[in-house]
Design a protein that fits this description.
Blueprint lengths: L4 H12 L3 H16 L2 H19 L10 H15 L5 H10 L2 H20 L6 E11 L2 E13 H5 L1 H66 L5 H36 L3 H6 L16 H6 L6 H23 L6 E9 L2 E10 L9 H66 L5 H37 L8 H4 L12
Antiparallel strand pairs: 1-2, 2-3, 3-4
Length: about 500
Amino acid sequence: MAITTDTMTATYRILLAARPRARLLALAAAAVLFTGCASTAVNQNLDSTAQFSRQHLGAEVRWLQSDEARAQAQADVDARLAQPLSADDAVQIALAYSPALQAMLYDSAADAATATQGARLPNPVFAFEKLVRKEAGARELEIGRVLSFSVLDLLLWPSRLRVAEYQQQATRLTLAGNVVDVANSARAAWVNAVAAEQSLTYFRQVKATADAGAELAKRMQAAGNYSRLQRAREQAFSADAVAQLARAQQSALATREALVRVLGLTDAQAAALKLPPRLPDLPPAPRDEASVQRTGLEQRLDVQLSRVSLDFLAREQGLSRITSLVNGLEVGVVRNSESGLPPQRGYELAFPLPLFDFGDAGRTRTEATYMAALNRTAQVAVEANSRVREQYGAYRTAYDVARHYRDEIVPLRKAISDENVLRYNAMLIGVFELLADSREQITSVVQAIEAQRDFWLADAALQAALVGRPIDTGTPAASSTRSADGGAPTH
């Protein structure tokens, strides 16, 4: 049952206006009603996260709480792995099956339960006392019973509920941020794995042309038509191609295993994983900068989380002003029985005397903590705007570079290759010049693939920046496949 703070406050005022005898029992019953059960808060947090995931990530978050749900999730994963895995499928598997995300969901449930427990009143305390006096053969028995509860906790109960509500908000925002991290990690791992597989195909072609050139140079030297230096150059390029292919194979393996880890696949599922042959094409046009800037940065998770924390500290500051001087007040109902005498009934009131600690240090600490949080919130807003501008700049640069390779460099290399084929057919150039041109064309295609990969990584980073979780787009694994001079040696 969802109960707002306003509803709770109105009910609390009605109870305080009740008659004194009924007030105590009514407040106790209301405490049980409004604190609710922890499972309700957990389900509300999960529903909020699921809605956020559908709206911003286009995927469904699933919490696997039974063997049947886990079996169904595994069957869904197997069905998706039966065909080449798309980026959206990778994100869906990560959000519905990954053990890492399931651990985050259970951690969030534990945090929600802790916040719910913090909103509940402490249990009343029952004390029992039995005293026996023996004198001159006579035996006297005295029995004392005390039922007490904290009056201060009861008076501050609305504040406790408000604090718990803000803690639940922080839990929901933190969980949403973790979901964004998982989704973007899955998408980035998929992009890297597909790009590495696509590049590996072309590195195999480079090695094939290098082997062909080395074998031809060997035969021509044996026939006396090629010098030792010319043959050594072809053999050196062939040796470099072998090293490049080995690095490309290792990069493809490393990126594939990184994707397996992000998705949480078993050994059998990892063996069944199939990737598409190439990355998606570039979009017809990049995102408009004005529309990106108009995106509500107020909806960023880090900004919302910072403001929730600030509100929490503001409530805590008001609470500390009350509890810094009087931090305990208990009232109890007493009933004493003594042998031969009628029972005694009454009440007991206990509170600490502020003789040594007047609460000034606690109030100063709370005010300083609040001001620090206020300035951190302002800094988060500054960094949010700056981060979006930075990520958009990286996104636009990556798009322009990838489009330049697609529209300029690769077509030019193909045109040069076509002309060289015509020249070779006219016997104007030899076979080695034709092979060298083929190698240069393949190298330009590999660089175009890397530029296309960098664009899709920058696109994922920009989406993350718009919701408040920017990610690193570094690709050290792919850089190791490039030669030292950025291309194949020419002749």
